[in-house]
Amino acid sequence: MVAPPSVPLLLDGRALADSLRTKHAPDVAWLKEAGRTPRLVVLQVGADEAAQAYIRGQRRGAEAWGLSYEVRTLPADSGEAAVRRAIRALNADRAVTGILLSLPLPEGLGVRALQHTIDPEKDVEGVHPENLGGCFRGRGLLPCTALAAVALIEMSGVALEGAEVVVVGHSDIVGKPVAMLLLGRDATVTVCHKFTTGLAAHTRRADVLVVAVGKPGLIRGDMVKEGAVVVDVGINAVPSDEGPGRMRLVGDVAFEEVAPRVAAITPVPGGVGPVTVAMLMRNTVLAARGIPPPDDPNQLPLFAH
Fold this sequence. Notes:
With 305 residues, the chain is α/β, with parallel strands linked by helices. It has ten helices and eleven strands. It folds into two domains: 25-126 and 276-286, Rossmann fold; 143-275, Rossmann fold (3-Layer(aba) Sandwich). It has helices spanning 13-33, 49-65, 80-92, 111-115, 129-133, 144-156, 175-183, 199-203, 255-258, 272-289; strands at residues 9-10, 39-45, 68-74, 98-101, 164-168, 188-192, 208-211, 229-232, 236-239, 247-250, 264-265. The longest helix is centred in the first third of the chain and has 21 residues, at 13-33. The relative contact order is 0.18. Residues 297-305 have low confidence and may be disordered.
């Protein structure tokens, strides 16, 4: 556990994202010289407004990293077979090194089945079963948000070996992968979810608390151990005090209550989000050069340094 300072360490996701871009700049330069510019193609079905903010963030990230970025849009009424054909065409295109299926999809389309159609070697979001399985070893194209959460934990300086870690939320692309990655670092991990009874009893034990449920203010000040490290993955739009119809972004953690008690905490926005985009770009670079061997320094646990 990190000793609590008078002012908590704010885990700056933008600074960490910048450091990751700098670290991988030589890889990008080498790939370009070799005629293998990393190229990420985002496939969206329809033009969901909620997805556009994510796409803009991804495009800015790709431009900053010097990667090629393209959005291909299918009609909103496309059937599952048409989406599969589009994914398979991208799988077969050697110029495309990374593929991401933009969510949400129109009603009636199977998200997991379509994500599983993506070639695992181009699945830069880390959602294919082969890549999710890589979380057991900490190798491969791993889920971007889970990587971001672990990188921010590393940034705090907390010693993970033997630490009590509580993960609130057990989604396939955040909660479960985070738990597996931290088990690989010899932490003692508890996973809580909506059916967990006595949530506060678990969270108060945590040296490291990761929250990813999409429920604003779920974790209150009295639910957190003094001196803990808190990573808030949640991002929720709630009404703002600035006027009718105005919204603001908050996390799953009641920041003003929790921050005075802890050693380190992520802000929302500006914490996990920028690092998630950086990890998407990082995965695109790794996919372009080929999955590296197990002793490659760009793999866990050294990827955040």
